[in-house]
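hiii, so i know i said id send this last week but things got crazy w the move. better late than never?? heres the sequnce for the chain we talked about at the cafe, plus the structure i predicted for it. fair warning i was half asleep when i ran it
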Amino acid sequence: MPKQKIAVFSGPNSTIGNSPTLVTGNKGRLKGERELEGRFDHLASQILYEPVTVRIKKFTGHPLEEESRALYHDDGKDYYEVELRPEDGPYPLPYVARRADGSPHGVPFEDGDLQDAAVKYGGRQFFFPDASRIFADIDRTIAGRDEHGEGNTLDRKAEYEFIRALPPAGYPSKGEISGQDYFPYRPYPISNRPRYRDLARVTNTVQAALASGNYAGGIWLEGSPTVEETTYWLSLLIDTELPIAGCASQRTHGQLANDGDRNIVDAVDYILSGQGMGLGAVGVQDERIYAAREFKKADDRPGNYKATGGHGGILGTVGPPVTVWYRPAYRRSSTSDVNINKLPTELAFLDHFGDSAPVTLRVKDGDGALLGDIIPRVHIVKYGAYMGEDETRDPDDEVDIIARIQLAQSQQSKPQGEAPQLHGIVLEGTSPYGMGSSSQHAALAIATFSGMPVVRVGRADPGGRVPSDGRDSLSIAGSNLDTNKARLLLMASLMKLGRLPKAQDPRNPTADERKAVQARLAEYQDIFENH
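okay and structure toks below
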């Protein structure tokens, strides 16, 4: 029976797609140079240049092999002889490369190079451009054997295609530029994070792959602090019944106690189990299956992802066998109201209350791909106790909110493609009410009547839903979503519904303008109630 194929997407800033610094081992160091401490030489996964025959001393695979000598075939030799070939794949070998510095022999590569601007912070990538080398290392048992002592843990299960969606490393020799084509987080002085428009690239890449009919599902690899956000975005935007597993790692590939390699193997098992069909995107971490909506990193150590929202979120366990215990009630992937195929190709809405003709924006191109310039700008405002400037409700005390409103108005005066056209705000307020200060609400009301929908959520990890409050009917109640998930859902909703109708004077809206805004907010609220 032919093996199924899984798409493996490399995402940005990925510890799961990273390895420790390549440091020159002692076999590559000259007399008088600093030696690495310890009795063993440093080994790194590398590929042979040419075939070589080696002799392996018998009974050295385990300290107690000699005790079972009678079980072993005796050919009269004290060694095994075997030919190692380049096509075998990577072997652990001494790392002897040296850095050019103008001297006859160069100098050893050191971890400290990554902090040295004079050598361009090491001049090397230790993130992987895609996950193919990681999969090879796992299969070669460099990263670990399965519980039965065998290798090819991944290759025995499925075939894989490695897709560089927003990879953490790239090829400068081919013209790729960090911050545009790939996104590493180290060395820190030259790290780069993805931009708003890169969400369109993510959406289009994953949607095209999973709609091709070539795959049983997809694995998304990303940095552990942000994989929760992309996983939720995929659950909202990707129109598919196929399973999508978001994976991360707290420790790099090849590092002591690395968890990422196991998460990858578990994700493959989850996809092949068939139990993820129609479940939307999920997080697969530490042998648990998390609903994308509730998936959240709590600390930088293995085993410290959690479910937010106070009412579940762990859907199942990897086992064996893979078991899905619960299925989410909210809409996702193929049932999502904001998936890419349910977004309009051309979005039309009234810019001001009473306008006779709508504003139109292009959301997708002629092939149905999401346009990078349509991705909305949604910003976060946070409330903390004792933040009021005085006893008034003066909205101008909230200079950040007022500045965001002014920037949105300025950008909307320009054509699509030259500046963002869709804007919104998320207020992280008290739990569970999502309330801020009086001046914040006054400023946010101006934002609402300036066409910018506002979502209220509770702070940090809210355990209950934000109630719809009649006293504050000019905003969207964000259920029990955390701030970052509410931001993503508002971004997706803006691409479906467009801006709110602006008042002629946002500081003094008329009764009719207020009713028109509230009617549009009800449409947003319906999405937030069901996603």
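btw The domain at 343-530 is CATH 3.40.50.40 (Rossmann fold). thought thatd interest u
miss u guys!!
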